Amino acid sequence: CPAAVEEPTTEFRAVFIATAWNVDWPLSSSDSSSNQQQQLINYLDMMTETNMNAIMFQVRPCGDAMYSSTIEPWSKYLTGTQGVAPDPFYDPLSYLVTEAHSRGIEVHAWLNPYRANLAPNKDGLAPNHMANVYPEYAYVYSNYVWMDPGADVIVDHLVTVIEDILTRYAVDGIHFDDYFYPYPDGTDFPDSSTYNEYVASGGSLSLDDWRRDNVNRMVERVYGVVHSTRPGAKFSISPFGIYRPGHPDGMPGPIAGLDPYTELFADAKLWLQSGWIDFLAPQLYWEIEPPAQSYPVLLDWWLDANTASRHIYAANGVYKIVDNDWPVSEIENQIAISRDATRRSKFSLGNVLYSAKYFRDNTKGITDAFQARVYTLPATV
Q: pTM to 2 decimals?
């Protein structure tokens, strides 16, 4: 068990509210508007009682919108049918921002940049959905429809969506999670046509390097767009928690697992060291002790790689108190590790908890534990 550490008065204390598959909100896409609003209030009440201060709210699960948009269709996870507005009408993002800010809670708009459908077809997609507007760049891959990150028009579309959100809503930031190119299913991503066009135009990067470059250029561009459109807003990413297997290579490792650099074409270390994000929230969804994936070993690797002095807010896998039967004390101890004075001096300044429903439901008493021992006092972001 980590040594006791003093509770900080300045700390990022966030929860992910996932809307894909109705993981956290709304409970059902058939719930009434007033019921959905009350569910958001219940989350905010829980956060106030536990002294949390930020939400990562999934506003674009798959090319859709959990807010009123003229660019993308209403999400089916909100109303049951993509493109259909809530009735009675309300705007969930506007409602949440107003209610959260009145309680001193930040709202970061969480988008998936390329994911187009959570099914391997276009069934039920609205006419103005990006997979229908740009069908030549919409690919069925594994259990999804995925847009081609190598197509400039797809990145332009993403940037337009982000500018629209930042212009019309007082959100505190834009957030991406770990989905860039899709997690591999053993087959190659079907972007040969786009890559061949790149080569024909004189491009010389290998396929893998070209894919990484597509994502890198998008990340750098979005960082600039966020800051130019809403000064003071933050751009953040929560990448897969391992940069590459073997990093670090040492006790109790070497670290093993998926290689997002070659599998997702995500070079999160480059983004961090280039200063293309304001904070990084690596998904450290492993226990403290395991030899191949150790929470403190991985956190320390990210902190040591943080040459641009960005904030690091470790993302914690609260869902594993159910899925892997972790004790709640595992999460408490992870936060204590994050708060270690040496780590705080390296900009470990908070945590992002996946996901909100476990605190809503007080699963295994986790909400009580946080009130009693973890977030006992308010803290500013």
A: 0.97
